[in-house]
Design goal:
With about 650 residues, the chain is an alpha+beta fold. The chain is built from 22 helices and 25 strands. The protein folds into 3 domains: about 190 residues, Heat Shock Protein 90; about 110 residues, Ribosomal Protein S5, domain 2 (2-Layer Sandwich); about 240 residues, MutL, C-terminal domain, dimerisation subdomain (formyl-coa transferase, domain 3, 2-Layer Sandwich). It is elongated and about 95 Å long.
């Protein structure tokens, strides 16, 4: 160890500026960010950007903003000099992009920097001035020729800091990052025209006054843009608005989830968690939606001064922001069925006629989706709030008459002799058990359904049930003559989950003659007591004794083995709340893939599913149903091109 004691000293101004530059400027994209944000703070309505060699050789930003007076231009390249705040009160209510006064001197300390700006004189004539700085040292200052606004030119970025220079990526990669940032900014300021050039080549042009959809159409694929739905809500005095994609148009990465707080592009884990919560049950944990989300709130309630590059924020009341975002995004995911269900709940005395699904489609509830489509049938039961199950007689095998349409073959009255028991079981949603699909489907050796030509078809609401494929998928034809496939496990999961969520089992368990015995780890004992009330609400009953646990009652849907597996998952921490527990219970108790269904069982399951809210997806976010209309099938078989 050296005996020499280091002394405390002030750093030279040049070194201080370079250290500050390391916090604010790390690549061409961050230089571009600071300069364009300054232009917007100056009231610019048009900003033109040009990059050479990915921004390493040259970056220019020109705007038509208010400009900087000649006697203030040198001050603009001095640290901690700004026009955007003047007191502590201003700092607590930031309304501009920049406010620290570090960006320009930081950039000038690691480049050859020139700024030219023009302001109007009292006689209305422009007065322009130019300042040149090289690696933090003022080189020249004097009059210039510029009609309006400000022109900034940054050359040879990091040429005086080889260590920083070697960390830059290829010019194409650096340009792409700058392009992505400018595009993200363009979504927040649709009132401003933005132009991006790569040398002499125009890459992006955003016209002033475009709406958000028009700008996204320049950036994202057409399929994604057409699946976006608007939302705009106010909750807890927080306005949340933007666009969110339908759940069936998703991707494996979250790079198309963009957040803005008071117009500032940010990255925030809490906002991301709120968006994921809004899509919970509609998307799997592996999939991500596309969302552009704007949060507008009192500036005093958000701290934008927690990150040097101002890319992160801190909310004073995180729970209110979380709730507001979840509420807003979910409002964009309401389907025609959800709207009809809500109306039906408010008018129990009469069924609601939601009209033709194609009419709702044209009104913008769904838009054009890629094939196959998540089903979007909003029709309501014909009577009594419950879907009707009807027997339909197929034409005789030797008949030369064309088969009648399902609607034409509906009897005037339900055939009570054939489906009386099934209709009785499915007459209400809340209080009755599931059909024989629930009580008998667990038999692995069930007799397969007879061939189609030897059996009666079953009509359930708008669907004609045709049969089962791979003992997993139910094949249907709807009343618009489209082909529909249901995943029997996902459908049954959704039915059971809805029943549990609505208290369908009322916390009543099946008492066991011989209790189940569990040996618990000490950490599981503590978790058990914290979750005991929730578990008992599901129909479980316990007699704990130290690290031993006797289960004396289990949910009616569960077998003994399923109960043990479920409790192990919960006590291990893999199921954290009631929703997760409901989803797990529904999954374990639901019909499995590979199990044969009789026609009655399939019809009963379908009838109950049609009376279930949020029916398009299982509790884990997988689709329950896919649909192909006649034009979709024509494209598959090359009968038409588009």
């Amino acid at each position: 160890m050296s005996d020499k004691i280091p002394h405390i000293r002030l750093l030279p101004p040049e070194l201080r500026n370079q250290i500050a530059a390391g916090e604010v400027v790390d690549r061409p994209a961050s230089v571009l960010k600071e300069l364009v944000e300054n232009s917007l703070d100056a009231g610019a309505t048009h900003v033109e950007v040009s990059l050479e060699n990915g921004g390493q050789s040259r970056i220019t930003v020109q705007d038509d903003g208010c400009g900087i007076a000649a006697d203030e231009l040198e001050l603009a390249v001095t640290r901690h000099a700004t026009s955007k705040i003047s007191s502590l009160d201003d700092l607590e209510r930031i309304a501009s992009f920049g406010f620290r006064g570090e960006a320009l001197p930081s950039i000038a300390s690691v480049s050859r920097f020139t700024i030219t700006s023009a302001v109007s004189t009292p006689d209305g004539q422009p007065s322009a001035h130019r300042v040149e700085v090289e690696h933090g040292l003022l080189k020249s200052s004097g009059p210039a020729a510029l009609h309006k606004g400000t022109l900034v030119e940054v050359r040879d970025l990091f040429s005086n800091i080889p260590a920083r220079l070697k960390f830059l990526k290829s010019p194409s990669t650096e340009f792409k990052r700058a392009q992505e940032w400018l595009a993200r900014l363009a979504l927040a300021r649709t009132d401003v025209g933005l132009l991006l050039n790569a040398g002499e080549r125009e890459v992006l042009r955003f016209l002033p006054g475009q709406d958000l959809i028009a700008r996204l159409a320049l950036l994202w694929p057409k399929l994604i843009v057409e699946a976006l739905r608007p939302f705009d809500t106010v909750r807890h005095d927080i306005r949340v608005h933007g666009l969110a994609s339908l759940p069936n148009v998703n991707q494996p990465r979250g790079n198309r989830i963009l957040f803005y707080v008071n117009g500032r592009a940010v990255n925030d884990k809490r906002l991301m968690a709120a968006v994921r919560e809004a899509y919970k049950g509609r998307l799997t944990s592996r999939d991500y939606p596309q969302v552009v989300l704007f949060v507008e709130m009192d500036p005093a309630e958000v701290d934008v001064n927690v990150h040097p590059a101002k890319s992160e924020v801190r909310f004073r009341d995180e729970s209110s922001v979380f709730s507001a975002v979840v509420y807003a995004v979910q409002s964009a995911l309401v389907t025609p069925w959800d709207l009809a269900e809500e109306q039906r709940q408010h008018t129990p005395s009469a069924a609601t006629d939601c009209g033709n699904p194609q009419e709702l489609h044209s009104q913008g509830f769904w838009g054009r989706l890629d094939n196959p489509r998540i089903m979007d049938f909003p029709e309501q039961p014909k009577s009594g709030g419950t879907w009707e199950v009807r027997e339909v007689m197929p034409p005789l095998p030797d008949s030369h008459e064309p088969p009648a349409s399902p609607v034409d073959t509906w009897p005037e009255q339900q055939d009570e002799t054939v489906f009386s028991q099934l209709a009785e079981q499915t007459s209400t949603y809340d209080d009755t058990p599931l059909s024989s699909a629930e009580t008998h489907i667990s038999q692995p050796n069930a007799v397969p359904s007879p061939p189609l030509t030897e059996r009666h078809l079953v009509q359930v609401g708008p669907f004609l049930y045709l049969g089962q494929v791979a003992r997993t998928y139910l094949v249907l034809r709807d009343d618009t003559d489209a082909l529909v496939l249901l995943d029997q496990h996902a459908v049954h999961e959704r039915v059971l989950y809805a029943r549990l969520a609505r208290g369908g089992d009322g916390g009543t368990g099946q008492v066991l003659t011989l209790p189940l015995r569990l040996s618990l780890h000490p950490s599981e004992v503590e978790r058990f007591f914290s979750l005991r009330a929730s578990l008992e609400s599901l129909g479980l009953a316990f007699e704990p004794a130290g690290t031993e646990l006797d289960v004396t009652a289990i949910p009616p849907l569960f077998s003994r083995a399923e109960t043990l597996e479920f409790l192990r998952e919960v006590l291990a921490g893999r199921k954290s709340d009631l929703k997760d527990m409901f989803a797990s219970m529904a999954c374990k108790a639901a019909i499995k893939a590979g199990q044969t269904l009789t026609d009655d069982e399939a019809a009963g399951l379908l009838a109950q599913w049609l009376d279930t809210p949020n029916r398009e997806y299982c509790p884990h976010g997988r689709p329950c149903v896919l649909r192909w209309a006649a034009p979709d099938l024509e494209k598959f078989f090359k009968r038409r091109q588009s």
